[in-house]
Design a protein that fits this description.
Shape of chain A: globular
Largest sheet of chain A: 7 strands, mixed
Radius of gyration of chain A: 22 Å
Distance between the termini of chain B: 34 Å
Distance between the termini of chain A: 15 Å
Radius of gyration of chain B: 12 Å
Number of helices of chain B: 1
Number of helices of chain A: 14
Strand content of chain B: 25-35%
Oligomer: heterodimer
Helix content of chain A: 25-40%
Chain lengths: ~425, ~90
């Protein structure tokens, strides 16, 4: 298959808030910019909206800013390799089912985050989803009316998802926040400096006032034959069994750093290391938003704009944004600490609980004294299609393992894409 | 934008709103089991955003397509592992 190749000044990977702000800023500075995203359109996960529908109000100015810029937007496009050559950076991607390559002088990584999904007995049953997962599926048209739903896990995401599921007609039985009441209350009180966030939280809570909200409560197990039927919820003293159709569980977000790592960018504590200009350890590669540390859309927009300005050679214009970036980063650290998963969540993972869902590897097959690499070699854990994106974070939480090295392609592609991306002598044996 | 498209799910015809993802269309049609895992247990959508690969189905003859990342299209044929292959 012939490969389409295009050349730009700047390639932005990801069209969530960080990528949108980066691309708009760089295009406005006169650079030729392409934005590549796996999804259906701009907005990322937080501003996801089905094709033909309007995104939330917060997103519209940024949608407009990107839409009215000269930046070329390519969706349904997964970037699976990024490397530095003598002629600049090369990004190999799959657009739909077709290979696609971009040459760019500079790259901005705005690859976002994914949910922290931790193993418990029954979590592989159909009907158990991530919290953000359920939100995404709802936005893409999944009917929720009449469904008996439990939301569990941790963090601020639980509230908007609860409100939107109720609005969609679901029967929300319980929202179970694993963090203790004191922790949640202290975090809420700390938001007095950011009244807009407090107002949002209050609005979301008003959206599911008819449902119970419990703190210090988590899922112990899910049961059902062929699909979810009931869930055991515990506060560590008492366990309660609830019948339901859908269980949404998520413990916050994990930065998506695979593309940065495959390009050789330094990562520390799971976050891409960046300078004041959002540049990574690889000169010419910038990173903005959740991959540099979970901070939410407001921080992602600012980091994206800073990265876009610097990549476009207009770094002098970025200085006015630094103070707000610093304040938002401090708030992000407080949130991460408040909603960190409690130790008891390690104990719910029993010996026959599946840890690696792609390769069906149970907890009992894993020796905690191993590394991620050893688990791969001995059990295939982390070698399936998700490439350790789900189990990797679980291994880190359970055993403190660092993720294994990343190799291209960073996610599964069609063979025809691999052949097209290979050097020509390899493509014609 | 409420145009509908017609697709088949395991050889059964359904109508869904244009713009719906294949995963959402399947869930709406009552399909909860999308694929069979390597040890034979049933799986359905988990992450909803293309990370986990649990929602893989066969779309128009191409296996292992992430149904949460693809929108329905008129005439699309979707086959899951759940209902067997007729």
């Amino acid at each position: 298959m012939t490969q389409q190749t295009e050349t730009f000044d700047i390639a932005v990977v990801g069209a969530g808030p960080a990528g949108m702000a980066a691309a708009a800023a760089a295009a406005r500075a006169g650079r030729r910019v392409v934005v590549l995203d796996q999804g259906f359109g701009a907005g990322g996960q937080i501003w996801r909206h089905a094709p033909g529908t309007l995104p939330v109000a917060d997103a519209r100015p940024w949608m407009e800013r990107l839409g009215s810029s000269t930046a070329v937007r390519r969706f349904h496009t997964s970037v699976v390799d990024l490397r530095c050559t003598d002629a600049g950076f090369v990004l190999d991607a799959e657009e739909g089912s077709s290979p696609y390559r971009v040459h760019a002088a500079r790259v901005i990584l705005a690859t976002g985050a994914r949910e922290l999904l931790l193993p418990f007995p029954g979590w592989t049953l159909p009907g158990v989803m991530g919290v953000g997962g359920a939100q995404a599926l709802l936005k893409m048209g999944t009917p929720m009316a009449g469904k008996r739903v439990i939301i569990a896990g941790s963090g601020p995401l639980l509230l908007p998802v609860a409100a939107s599921l109720v609005k969609a007609g679901a029967r929300l039985l319980l929202v179970a926040e694993q963090a203790d009441f004191g922790v949640v209350a202290r975090f809420g009180a700390s938001l007095w400096r950011r009244p807009a966030l407090l107002a949002k939280a209050a609005k979301y809570r008003a959206g599911f006032l008819g449902s119970r909200y419990a703190t210090g409560t988590w899922v112990r197990s899910a049961e059902g034959t062929a699909q979810l039927q009931r869930v055991d919820i515990t506060d560590g003293r008492r366990t309660e069994t609830l019948e339901c159709d859908l269980l949404c569980v998520g413990h916050g977000l994990v930065p998506s750093t695979e593309l940065a790592r495959v390009a050789g960018c330094a990562v520390a504590g799971g976050k891409v290391v960046v300078s004041e200009s959002q540049e990574t350890s690889v000169a010419g590669v910038y990173c903005a938003g959740e991959p540099t540390g979970i901070g939410g859309a407001d921080l992602a927009l600012i980091e994206g704009e800073i990265a876009g300005l610097w990549a476009a050679g207009r770094g002098a214009d970025a200085g006015r944004l630094y103070a707000e970036r610093a304040a938002l980063r401090r708030a992000a650290v407080a949130m991460e600490q408040a909603f960190a998963p409690r130790a008891e969540l390690r104990d719910v993972c029993t010996s026959d609980t599946t840890i690696c869902r792609c390769e069906d590897v149970p907890r009992s097959a894993i020796d905690p004294s191993w590394s991620s690499r050893q688990a791969k070699l001995y059990t295939r854990a982390g070698m399936g299609p998700c490439q350790g994106r789900v189990c990797g974070a679980a291994f880190e939480f359970l055993f403190g393992w660092a993720p294994d090295t990343v190799r291209p392609p960073i996610e599964p592609v069609l063979l025809s894409t691999l052949v097209a991306a290979a050097p020509s002598e390899a493509a014609h044996p | 934008m409420n145009d509908t498209v017609r697709i088949t799910v395991d050889h059964r015809a359904i109508s869904v709103d244009a713009g719906t993802s294949v995963a959402a269309a399947l869930l709406g049609a009552g399909t909860t089991s999308f694929r069979t895992s390597v040890s034979g247990t049933m799986r359905g959508p988990l992450c909803g955003m293309g990370i986990c690969h649990e929602c893989r189905v066969t779309i128009d003859g191409v296996a292992h397509r992430r149904s949460c990342m693809i929108a329905v299209a008129d005439g699309m044929q979707v086959v899951t592992d759940g209902a067997g292959h007729a």
